[in-house]
Description:
By secondary structure, the protein is an alpha/beta fold. 28% of the residues lie in helices and 13% in strands.
Amino acid sequence: MSRLALGCMSFGDSTKGAHTWTLDYTQSEKIITKSLDLGINFFDTANVYSLGSSEEIVGACLKKYAKRDDVVIATKVYEKMTASPWGRFRLGAK
């Protein structure tokens, strides 16, 4: 595992979630492939980054450019992704 991790909060669909500044698939793909070329094989993401689209982009790129046994993916599970306040925090209780 590389000593540095690539944080993936900036990857995702800008129409999902609260971050309108996210990078789309094409932009994210360039960063992910450059990271792999430089020996970075540790990726950090979370289910709430752009309502899951960050994880989708990371997964698609790694599937295309890396072998599963050669990368480490750290993800975090925060609250349930919903607009309703009643759905908050239930995911962690399961």
